C-alpha cells in the first residue's frame, strides 16, 4: 500500500479527470499541468521528480492524436516512449510505484477474439508503435511497473471523444454513418480510474502488462447504436433516424486504425481482485450522466 503523495501525469485528459473525480479522500497527489511537467522534454523530468519525490506515479499522459503522430512520429515517441522510460527509471531507482497506461492500438488485426495480454504486439500506425515502444522501455527500466492497456476510452464528462461527438451530431442530423470494421472494447474512464485506485490500495503486485478495458467487444457502429438507444431512453431528443453502417475507407485518415483490438481483461480479477464492468453497463452510466448536457444542447439547437 502506498499512502505518500503521488504524481498523476495527464491530469487534464479523460483518464486524468476521471482519476481526480474518483480519488479516495485520503489520497494526496500532484497533478502538474503540461507546462510544469512536459513529457516532450524527458530530460527535464528527473530534476522535477527529485523535487516532488512521489511515492507512486500514474502516467495517464500521452500523445494521443493518432493522425498527428503519423506526421511527427518523433514527437509522439518522446511523450509515449522516452518520457515513460524516464519515469520508470526514476521510479525504479527511488522505490516508487508506477502505473503506466497503454493502448489497444499496439495491436492491428486481432484473431477476432478478445486479445490476451501476452499476444505479440503488431501496431498499424505511428501512435501504436510509439506506445508499444513505451511499454517495452518501461518494462526494461522497471520490471515491476504495472502497465494497463485500455481501449476506446470515453468520459468521464460530456466531452469531445468519439461517443459524445456522435451523440451531439445525432441531435442535429437525420442520418449518421459509422464504421463497422473497427472493433474494440469501449471503456469508461471512471471504471479504469477506480481500477487504478484499487491497485494502488493493494500491496505491490502484478508487475507487467495487463488488459484493463470494459468487458466485451463492440464495433464503433455497435457502440453508437447502443449509445443512441440509451440516450433515447433518457429522454434525449435524438433526431438521427438512420444509423448507416460503412467501411473505414469511407473516412480516409492519415493513420490506419486497427480493425480488431478488443482486449481480454478477464485476468484482472485473479491478479488484483477487481474487474471491469461489461461495456454496455459502463456506457449506460455514461449516457445517464451526460443526458442533461445532451438535452441542454438539443434545446439550444
Ligand atoms: N482515448 C482513447 O481512446 C484511448 C484508448 C486506449 C488507450 N488510451 C491511453 O489512455 C491514456 C489516457 O488517455 P486519454 O484518453 O485520457 O488522453 P487525452 O484525453 O487525450 O489526454 C491526454 C493527456 O496527456 C497530456 N499530455 C499530452 N502531451 C503531453 C506532454 N507533452 N506533457 C505532459 N502532458 C501531456 C494532455 O495534456 P493537455 O491537456 O495539456 O493536452 C492530457 O492531459 C493514454 O495513455 C492513452 O494512450 C487512450
User: Any idea what the radius of gyration is?
Assistant: 19 Å
CATH architecture of the domain at 6-156 and 186-215 and 261-277: 3-Layer(aba) Sandwich
Number of helices: 10
Q: Uncertain spans, ≥5 residues at pLDDT below 50? A: none
| Top CATH class of the domain at 6-156 and 186-215 and 261-277 | Alpha Beta
- The percent of residues in helical segments reads 40-55%
- Distance from first to last alpha carbon: 50 Å
Largest sheet: 6 strands, parallel
DSSP strand (E) fraction? 5-15%
Strand order of the largest sheet: 2-1-3-4-5-10
By DSSP, the count of extended strands is: 12
Bound molecules: NADP nicotinamide-adenine-dinucleotide phosphate
CATH 4th-level superfamily of the domain at 6-156 and 186-215 and 261-277: NAD(P)-binding Rossmann-like Domain
Question: What is the overall pLDDT average?
Answer: 96
User: What is the structural class?
Assistant: alpha/beta
Q: What is the CATH topology descriptor of the domain at 6-156 and 186-215 and 261-277?
A: Rossmann fold
Order of helices and strands: EHEHEHHEHEEHEEEHEEHEHH
Which outline best applies?
A: globular
Amino acid at each position: 500500500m502506498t499512502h505518500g503523495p503521488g504524481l498523476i501525469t495527464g491530469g487534464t485528459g479523460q483518464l486524468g479527470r476521471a482519476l481526480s473525480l474518483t480519488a479516495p479522500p485520503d489520497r494526496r497527489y500532484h497533478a502538474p499541468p503540461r507546462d510544469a511537467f512536459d513529457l516532450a522534454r524527458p530530460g527535464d523530468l528527473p530534476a522535477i521528480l527529485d523535487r516532488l519525490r512521489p511515492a507512486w506515479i500514474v502516467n495517464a499522459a500521452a500523445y494521443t492524436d493518432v493522425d498527428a503522430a503519423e506526421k511527427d512520429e518523433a514527437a509522439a515517441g518522446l511523450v509515449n516512449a522516452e518520457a515513460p522510460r524516464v519515469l520508470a527509471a526514476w521510479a525504479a531507482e527511488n522505490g516508487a510505484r508506477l502505473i503506466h497506461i497503454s493502448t489497444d492500438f499496439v495491436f492491428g488485426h486481432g484473431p477476432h477474439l478478445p486479445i490476451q495480454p501476452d499476444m505479440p504486439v503488431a501496431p498499424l500506425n505511428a501512435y501504436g508503435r510509439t506506445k508499444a515502444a513505451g511499454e517495452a522501455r518501461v518494462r526494461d527500466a522497471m520490471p515491476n511497473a504495472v502497465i494497463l492497456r485500455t481501449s476506446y476510452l470515453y468520459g468521464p464528462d460530456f466531452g469531445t471523444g468519439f461517443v459524445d461527438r456522435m451523440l451531439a451530431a445525432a441531435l442535429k442530423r437525420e442520418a449518421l454513418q459509422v464504421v463497422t470494421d473497427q472493433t474494440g472494447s469501449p471503456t469508461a474512464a471512471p471504471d479504469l480510474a477506480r481500477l487504478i485506485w484499487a491497485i494502488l490500495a493493494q500491496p505491490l503486485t502484478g508487475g507487467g502488462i495487463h488488459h484493463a478495458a470494459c468487458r466485451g467487444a463492440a464495433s464503433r457502429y455497435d457502440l453508437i447504436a447502443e449509445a443512441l438507444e440509451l440516450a433515447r431512453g433518457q429522454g434525449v431528443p435524438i433526431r438521427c433516424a438512420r444509423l448507416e453502417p460503412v467501411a473505414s475507407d469511407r473516412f480516409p485518415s492519415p493513420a490506419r486504425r486497427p480493425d480488431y483490438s478488443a482486449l481480454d481483461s478477464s485476468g484482472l480479477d485473479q491478479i488484483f481482485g477487481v474487474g471491469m464492468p461489461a461495456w454496455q453497463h459502463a456506457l449506460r452510466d455514461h449516457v445517464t450522466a451526460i443526458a442533461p448536457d445532451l438535452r441542454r444542447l438539443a434545446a439550444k439547437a
